[in-house]
Write a structure and sequence with these properties.
By secondary structure, this protein is of the alpha+beta class. 44% of the residues lie in helices and 17% in strands. It has 22 helices and 16 strands. Strands 11, 12, 13, 14, 15 and 16 form a six-stranded mixed β-sheet that branches. Strands 1-5-4-3-2 form a five-stranded mixed β-sheet, with helices on both faces. A five-stranded antiparallel β-sheet has the order 7-6-10-9-8, sandwiched between helices. Strand 3, helix 2 and strand 4 form a beta-alpha-beta unit. The longest helix has 26 residues. The N terminus is likely disordered.
Amino acid sequence: MRISETERTGSGHSSGPAPGPDYGPGPTLAQLLALVAAGTLDVVVAPCGTDVPVSDVVLHDPGEERDERTWAVTGLVLLVVGVEAASPEAVDVLRAADRAGAAAVVMRRGTRGPRAALLEAAERGRTALLTRGSGQGWTDVLGRLRTALVHSVPDRFAGATGVAGTDRVDGLRLGDLSGLANTVADLVGGAITIEDPQSRVLAYSRMDHEPDPMRRLTILGQEVPRWRVVELRESGFFQALWNTDDVVRLPADERYAERLAVAVRHGSEVLGSIWAAADGRPLAEDAVAALATAGRAAVPHLSHHRTWGRAAAWAREGAVRALLAGNPEAAYDVGIARDRPHAVMVAEVHEGRESVPGDAGQRVLDVLALQAAAYRPGCVTARSGQRLYAVVPALDRETDPARTLLATVRSAHGGGVPGSVVFAGAGPVVADLAELPASRDAAELVVRVLRERATRRPAAGAGSAAAVAVAVASYEDVVAEASVLRLLDRVEPLWGAMQGPVHAMVEHDRAHGSRYGDSVAAHLDAFGDTAAAARRLNVHPNTLRYRLRRARELFGVDLADPAVRLLADVGLRLGRRPPG
């Protein structure tokens, strides 16, 4: 695959990232506050309003020796670490910042709030007084404000490049990658995907025309196909892309439409890339210049996504886990209604009898999480290893809200990982969020039932687990088997401390590879029907009769005794359990 000469959007040749231009004064305090998440900062007093310019955001520790005359740059936002708004030293800190020309001071609000003396000092000065919202750390606040500062740079791109329409980027919410993709698509006249450095899709533009095969594969898989990544890497395309600020062209061939790509970088760090593909029509004449502009405008959005999008997702999953552990107060952090009944669904990814390893299982969970999020507003998810937990709200008079989601999982999961199996179970509806742990426990028990069913069916052949894409059930569907599992959980510690005929038979099978236990279990499951049990074991009935007689002679397992039958059923069920 040949790569055309790199398209240059400027007059000079550059072999690497160039220093960023000076775009003049920084944003206003009001612009920064509009870009950070609601509730991060509260404006207490702003004597000059919030339309004051901000030059930088810095941490300030009053305990450190620092001459205020060394604050040569005015317009700073000072994050005052270790000082509550109600503390006596707060007034002195605010006055010192005001003398130095600071735009704003941010303090921790505390439980009592600002003192009257602090409010009076703020109203007499020029520096705005802000307080940090509860639950926000100083590192979070610093990162959010500095990301918002970076976001002010693209505001000047339209005038710097002359590309019409780029001012529309200014109105995007920080981190709105879907909005950015749609805006860039309008500018370049093509289909847009925004990708991370590992070629995973972060966002894509709306599709006005039927996508070409590569775009379809990329969007459906949420990443560029691995073979395509290898192809681009070996051809040198990625090396060209990651080592220039300019737009790189990938010519059309008999398979795919023409593509343009630009790296999104912050200094020397690559944050991702933006790809434009012809979408049923030629790309716009100024598509190269527009995409180059978009690459610079995307810096704060990708930076925000990487830092705060990931952190917000982790925090949200942490809140969902707290809900599942029985903390109803976490509902405020995930935005679900506390007065609505809910149920828990658990999905577990396996390959045969083992969990699907690494990224393969995570890709299956990605799809399941998207299905759950799209199923119903207020449906939230969290992961734990190879499991996905979904908290599903119930509609009015709905008794089993997770059952439809289970059906969706069954129909939509196509075994995306060869040999993968999804076991999904739904717990009962609970009226109070404090009872969610009970629904979670029941859903986990359903998954165990489905998993043990799969391991107990050798007649389907060794490949049976690989042949089944998904198995789902509600707790009501498996209540008897689930009750047996609960009972066995209680009995298992006692059983391990005991000895008897069944113990001796199980140990003999483990030591010598014999199948006395399988034969006894098949006989019990068939209610003593020797012919049916022999068919299940794929042996002659006389062979089964011989094994049962030898079990009685060698170990004393007499199936004519009801007590022995009960002990055999319990012991063999426990013996079939996987380790751990």
